[in-house]
């Protein structure tokens, strides 16, 4: 496998899009240089297989045929074994059934599996953000990070490399009751034109519409910044599915995720 050159990012994105039109936001985040990582291809001139690693231990693989994917499987197994030796994370997002088949053949006995839905926000959908008396809305800042139980500084260090990078290039909304952060919506990943949403509400404040409020503000901020909001969740997470659809997200695909135990 060959390490791709940054100046070829646009052609690489198009190649991946032809295989998987709904590929994950973190792929663009790496190729746009927003977060650290690498993209490898089987051939620099006419790539048929794309393997991307983000520095946080999240991976993505897409190929034009199962045969081509299998020819590159030894490289993927080597990456998995390296992560296992170093007690590092290995979570791989599969492009489609071809990747599923390859992963099951080469690492099926070593990895767990999960099915997830991928959604994108329909910009034809409009909503009005309703005020919530007694609560205030703030953009994520260092004070919010320090006070947060769901998205503390080490969350941003894991996914963004450092908190400063998130504060510069990410998007976050917090709902506060006094000085307590009770609901949040942040971009776990963001590229130049897309943002994937992560969301949380304190258990004692659920059922009050605060997640909806945070997400509405998040969507508005994303659109202001010309970034299309994306939403991914486990197929069994019915509350997340219901909220996504209520907000106006449309399902793009259901995909498989492979992950190792640490």
Automatic annotation (TrEMBL):
<dbReference type="GO" id="GO:0016747">
    <property type="term" value="F:acyltransferase activity, transferring groups other than amino-acyl groups"/>
</dbReference>
<dbReference type="InterPro" id="IPR016181">
    <property type="entry name" value="Acyl_CoA_acyltransferase"/>
</dbReference>
<dbReference type="InterPro" id="IPR000182">
    <property type="entry name" value="GNAT_dom"/>
</dbReference>
<feature type="domain" description="N-acetyltransferase">
    <location>
        <begin position="130"/>
        <end position="262"/>
    </location>
</feature>
<dbReference type="Pfam" id="PF12746">
    <property type="entry name" value="GNAT_acetyltran"/>
</dbReference>
<keyword id="KW-0808">Transferase</keyword>
<dbReference type="InterPro" id="IPR027365">
    <property type="entry name" value="GNAT_acetyltra_YdfB-like"/>
</dbReference>
<protein>
    <submittedName>
        <fullName>GNAT family acetyltransferase</fullName>
    </submittedName>
</protein>
